[in-house]
Amino acid sequence: MVVEDEPGVRALISSVLRGAGFEVVEAEDGEAALAVGTERLDAVVTDVVMPGMSGTVLARRLRQVHPGIPMLFVSGYAHDQRPGTLANMQGTAYLQKPFAPDELVEKLRGLMDTAPPKGRW
Q1: How far, in Å, CA of 118 to CA of 41, rounded?
Q2: Where are the domains of the chain?
Q3: Helix or strand run (H / E) with residue 71
């Protein structure tokens, strides 16, 4: 799942991931992500700073339903570089915007490769 409040950025991230062979579900904010969050998910790519619900709050709420799901946080704000709340969350990674498409795919694949078996969420 890709959760990003900027439509152009969301479309770009989704396009890159689809091009790399991922199936992608999109959500424009945390509330929309929670609406589809009960479906089986393999990983979540979410912006850290979004209106209404931050990516970290979304991660905590999704993990109540999907414990251990890999979470890739992205942000364009320099002060958000790996905030303390993210540093304590297992199965997470951080990518600073802007990033190259291959960086996104590599970071997400690496995160998913180290995740617990899918049956656990």
Answers
A1: 9
A2: 2-113
A3: strand 71-75
For 56: left if phi > 0, alpha if psi spans -120 to 50, otherwise beta; the answer is: alpha
pTM of the model: 0.87
pLDDT 10s digits, 59-90 = 999 988 888 899 999 998 755 444 455 556 77
Contacts of 27 (CB under 8 A, 6+ apart): 1, 2, 3, 33, 35, 36
Smallest Cα–Cα separation from 34: which of 19, 49, 55?
Answer: 55
Q: Does domain 2-113 have CATH number 1.10.150.130?
A: no
